[in-house]
Amino acid sequence: MLRLKPGFQVLARHAGFRARGLTTVNAPRSLRRATATLLIGGASTAIAAYFFLPDISRGAPTCDNIPLSPSHFTPAKLVSSTITSSGTKILTLAIPPELLPEESDLFAPIWSVFIKDDDIQVERPYTPLDGVDENGNMKFWIKRYQHGEVSRWLHSKQVGDIIEIRGPLKTWSWKDDAWDEIILISGGTGITPFYQLLRAVFSGNPSFQGRITLLHSSRTLSELPPHDILDPLLKFAQHNPEKFRLKFFVDSFGETKGQSSIDLKVHKGPIGKESIRGALHSVSCFPWWRGLFSQDSDVSDRKILFLVCGPEKMVEAIAGPYGRNYSQGPVGGVLQSLGYKSRQVWKL
Predict the structure, then answer these.
(1) Residue 112: which of 95, 96, 131, 86 has the closest Cα?
(2) Are 180 and 305 within 8 A, CB to CB?
(3) What are the pLDDT digits (tens) for 260-304?
């Protein structure tokens, strides 16, 4: 059975209404045939417009002489491309330093840029690992997906090629004293916004007094984040033991090629209820007898925030599916079973 997109269904319903208004059982056959042809032609035009007319982002101009902005695309040069594992690369893009925006608050602790595939005019958001430096360099860890148009296109680019970007766009805003504890849960390249956040917190925000725990999952050891990400994270944990912990999980140990030199404890299995409960520092602050009545009592009153980013199936299992058009939607999955509410959970 053919299933139509919501907008498509509106067009179909509208066409059906018009058909019933224009034709009658007793109308001449020639009139009915002409009317049907008109309706089919009109519906085809509407369908074509729905699928092929450019959206606002596709119509954004390219500007090479004004600062980087979400309202237009800026040419950036690919200055390095390094394979980190099977199917992933570290790509570094550079824009002229004079095109960096002067407003520093645009670069929130978690922000991204859209990268456009010039061949098919499709764009996708990507998170610069280290933000942007004074020379306009932005570094990305990007996985090549079989059905990912932009990721496949990016993996085909050579050093020296020009790639168009627009942004920055804030993904999530940091608040120093809003949370006593933040739990970051990521899968695959979903760790990139969390790396960006942690780097901002532990490199440029020493006044933070809360506690952050990162739980990250990869399919195999060889698909763990590269040294560019792992090494700084391990240093953050070493230098801030009271403020930052991290724990890695894999579905299968598989081959260790590319990661054998990392002294890292990795747990086998998915990130589940017990893993999350064990990561919560505040749980140990309650007297033992409270667990006799409700193991997860009063969780909605704690100043705890969960940020979740990764493959959709993982996000759904941990925090429930996204809402329509990737809105937050209700909390579900493991976090719902633990009693957490929408104000304590954010899906990136």
Answers:
(1) 131
(2) no
(3) 445 688 999 999 999 999 998 754 444 434 444 444 445 656 789
Annotated binding residue 192: yes
Q: From CA 229, how far away is CA 146, in angstroms rounded? A: 24
Q: How far apart are CA 317 and CA 272, in angstroms?
A: 9
Nearest alpha-carbon partner for 267 in 303, 311, 210, 224: 224
Known binder of ligand: residue 195?
no
CA–CA separation, 281 and 235 (whole Å) = 20
pLDDT for 176-216, tens place per residue? 778 899 999 999 999 999 999 999 889 876 677 889 999 99
Contact between residue 164 and residue 73 where contact means Cβ atoms under 8 Å apart: yes
Supply the pTM of this predicted model. Answer: 0.77
Q: Of 174, 68, 60, 177, which is closest to residue 122 (Cα–Cα)?
A: 60
324 burial via Cβ count (<10 Å: 0-12, 13-18, 19+): exposed
245 labelled ligand-binding:
no
Is 62 annotated to bind a ligand? Reply is: no
Strand partners, 117: 122
pLDDT for the residue numbered 233: 96
81 has pLDDT over 80: yes
Name every residue whose Cβ is closer than 8 Å to that of residue 176 and which is 6 or more positions away in sequence: 205, 207, 208
| Distance between CA atoms of residues 342 and 215, nearest Å | 20
> Please, what is the average pLDDT of the chain?
80
Q: Is the pLDDT of residue 163 over 50?
A: yes
Q: What is the dihedral of CA 224, 225, 228, 233, to 10 degrees?
A: -100
Average pLDDT rounded to a whole number, residues 239-263: 78
H/E stretch holding 246: strand 244-250
Residue with tokens 């942690």: 198
Q: Are 132 and 96 in contact (CB under 8 A)?
A: no
Q: How far apart are CA 88 and CA 142, in angstroms?
A: 6
Tokens of 300: 């909605």
Residue 150, marked binder:
yes
